[in-house]
Amino acid sequence: MAHPIMFSDDDPGLAELRAICLALPGAEERVSHGRPTFRAGRIFAAFGGSEKIRPGEHRMVPSAFIFTPDAVDLPAIDEDPRFFVPAYYGPYGGRAIDLAGPGVDWAEIAELADASYRRVAPKRLVEELDARG
């Protein structure tokens, strides 16, 4: 049985995140578990999710941007209160930020998407991205 769709095209931040992610070479969008995911072979970004507060308790964040940062950036991200550990993705290094929050820095979101993309994209796609300058 398919998951119900849990987003709308006019959700805060989704259009901007789509533009950022789909501009990356070979990136495509697929709906998984009712939410948009962005892939370059494997998932590098997802839109919408939740934060696990404690076992059995979650805080829904429908406009979350879920990504996997570089390990070197993880300490700074974990110190920043705008970011949280998303349910399901967190144990694999995923972090998230609410795109409906105040003062979203889209250049920062683009950098985070780029770093997450580079972690999973095939070498030829990363080379194509680097060739764009």
TrEMBL record:
GO molecular function: DNA binding
InterPro entries: YjbR-like_sf, YjbR/MT2646/Rv2570-like
DNA-binding in keyword set: yes
Keywords recorded for this protein, A-Z: DNA-binding
Source species, domain of life: Bacteria
Protein name: MmcQ/YjbR family DNA-binding protein
Organism: Nocardioides albidus
